[in-house]
Amino acid sequence: MGLADGEIERVRAGTDIVAIISERTALKRAGTRWSGLCPFHTERSPSFSVNAADGIYYCFGCHAKGDAITFVRETQHLDFIEAVEYLAGRAGIELQHDEGSGAVRQQRKQFLDVMERAVAWYHQQLLETPEAGAARNYLRSRGYDGETVRQFKLGWAPDDWDSLCRALDLSPKDLEGTGLGFVNKRGRKQDALRARIIFPIFDSSGHAIAVGGRVMPPQPGGPPVSEAKYKNSPETPIYSKRRTLYALNWAKAEVVKKSEIVVCEGYTDVIAFFRAGIPRAVATCGTALSEDHFRTMRNFANRIVLAYDGDSAGQNAAASVYQWEQ
Ligand SMILES: [Zn+2]
After folding, report:
1. Which of 19, 29, 195, 222 is a Cys-bridge partner for 159, taking CB atoms 3.0 to 4.6 Å apart?
2. How far does residue 142's CA lie from ligand 1's centre (Å)?
């Protein structure tokens, strides 16, 4: 999956080369050029020149030359695409990828559309149906006001076999492509999630791509909950767990502004950070942090803060991240 035509030009045009290079060496304006000490060789008097209008640099001492992409590749030891992604992240540009044939793209678009409708439907169930009363009370008891529920588009999957399938009239292909349901042994369509609070998961540009469902806590005096606390969408053509960071779509602007990203262990931790006035938190979705996650985060921020639990699972996760970072 490469970049779509014109994307590299768009990144070059959106990049301030003087700002990028100034992070490595002090530049002084001299007419239409900027000059400073060369970051690629040791020198006492400046022979490094930047032409901001053309977006290029040249060193009269060591003959290093190139554009912003070259500069980022050389100084950060990235490959070409990584450098483009880094600059795109800094410039707030959402890169368009060339996703193969028109048919594949069309298919993806259909699945994204189904997911968007499902998220809207789950959200409406939580806000409006009498059946979701217990879920609303539970969320309220956890301090989630209406604003929080709306911001994170929380939802409710009714305690029923197939209410989503029926409400949206989903085809078996839609179910498979989104992971929202499946065809059961009796040949009937069935919802993947029931009687769960829904945390929709969006890609960094805000398209709904998956859902996580949390069971309600056991009733006082009732039977213990036997199912897993969280159940997430499976990998699908629109959802890759090792690439996705929950809440990056909401956190992105603040992450870039502060050049810092906070990584939590789960959806509710992320929401707690937002509510505490730190809207630059994300979480992985039921997986460990991957290299892809790190690459994504580096596109947006210089500083990664791990906000993991003090228990041993959290400590182990933090330790493995630390090793990875060495
Ligand atoms: Zn030089």
Report:
1. 195
2. 58
Task: Tell me how far the alpha carbon of residue 47 lies from the centroid of ligand 1, in angstroms.
Answer: 7
CA of 49 to the centre of ligand 1 (A): 9
**139-153 pLDDT, tens digit each:** 999 999 999 999 999
CA of 65 to the centre of ligand 1 (A): 9
Domain that holds residue 117: 100-232
If one counts the domains in the chain, the total is 3
10-14, 61-65, 96-100, range with the lowest pLDDT: 96-100
d(CA 3, CA 175): 29
Closest CA to 257 of 281, 283, 282, 280: 280
Residues paired with 27 in a beta bridge: none
Residue 309 lies in a domain: yes
Of 235, 121, 242, 106, nearest to 178 by C-alpha is: 235
pLDDT at 82: 85
Residue-averaged pLDDT of the chain:
89
Strand blocks (E) in 1-115: 2-3, 28-30, 33-36, 48-51, 56-59, 65-67, 97-98
Indicate if 253 and 163 belong to the same structural domain.
Answer: no
Residue 39: inside a domain: yes
Q: Could you read off the pLDDT of 237-281 as tens digits, one per residue?
A: 899 888 899 999 999 989 988 989 999 989 999 999 999 999 999
Statement to judge: residues 108 and 227 lie in one domain: yes
User: Residue 239 domain-assigned?
Assistant: no
